């Protein structure tokens, strides 16, 4: 069984594959939590392991050592590349493109093999453009819903509400009649507006000959604005498999 991990600054998303079928997975907030989650399932037999990490080199090495000692496996870590799986990194300094973002666009091209617009909607929102020949044309980064609402909560004294209220406010799209409704629906409209602007730019590049990929925790919230979009929650893992093939 292959353990795959996407290690962010705050959370680790993981899944286990058996013959290319996902048999388990989850999200944890620490290295210790990851080990506990894996050991809690006695049917998991980890024999191989690969990961992508945006953490520091020391933090990544510490996690790899912990996994290696616990499961007696070699841990393969994705690394930056100018060219990977037919995709050419478009950054002037290719090592500065975030690894998780890089693998998401590699994963999209792996699935499509045509021009792609990759929209990753998480804490931050990224948009990346990949031409039919695999050349990454660059992209955009803006705050996602969590950052937008937290900025308003932090810098506006009278804006205070809990996460449950935020979720309920997004059940409708009409103008808000409470502060939480006004903030949450306003932020969502900004997010959808960003997405629509990226779609227009993609059309300027390629007409209608491109594919749209949606990924990230808030991808569902904009799916209605992109009916042609392909929702792939584990897009980073598709790219990780291309970056770190295990035979």
TrEMBL record:
Pfam families: Pan_kinase
Binding site for K(+): 120
The UniProt record lists the keyword Aminoacyl-tRNA synthetase: no
GO biological process per UniProt: coenzyme A biosynthetic process
Binding locations of ATP: 6-13, 123
Domain of life: Bacteria
Annotated protein name in UniProt: Type III pantothenate kinase
Lineage of source species: Bacteria, Pseudomonadati, Pseudomonadota, Gammaproteobacteria, Pseudomonadales
């Amino acid at each position: 069984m292959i353990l795959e991990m996407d290690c962010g600054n705050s959370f680790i998303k993981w899944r286990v594959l058996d013959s290319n079928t996902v048999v388990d997975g989850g999200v944890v907030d620490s290295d210790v939590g990851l080990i506990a989650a894996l050991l809690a399932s006695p049917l998991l037999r980890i024999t191989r392991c690969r990961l992508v990490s945006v953490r520091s080199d020391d933090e990544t090495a510490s996690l790899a050592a912990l996994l290696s000692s616990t499961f007696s496996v070699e841990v393969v870590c994705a690394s930056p590349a100018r060219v990977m799986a037919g995709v050419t990194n478009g950054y002037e300094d290719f090592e500065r493109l975030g690894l998780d973002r890089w693998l998401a666009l590699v994963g999209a091209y792996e699935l499509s093999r045509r021009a792609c617009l990759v929209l990753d909607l998480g804490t931050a929102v990224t948009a990346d453009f990949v031409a039919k020949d695999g050349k990454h044309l660059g992209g955009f980064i803006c705050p996602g819903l969590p950052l937008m609402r937290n900025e308003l909560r932090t810098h506006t004294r009278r804006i205070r509400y809990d996460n449950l209220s935020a979720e309920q406010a997004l059940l409708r799209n009409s103008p808000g009649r409470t502060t939480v409704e006004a903030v949450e629906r306003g932020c969502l409209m900004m997010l959808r507006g960003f997405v629509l602007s990226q779609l227009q730019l993609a059309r300027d590049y390629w007409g209608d000959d491109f594919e749209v990929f949606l990924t990230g925790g808030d991808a569902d919230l904009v799916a209605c604005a992109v009916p042609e979009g392909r929702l792939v929650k584990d897009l980073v893992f598709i790219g990780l498999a291309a970056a770190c093939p295990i035979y």
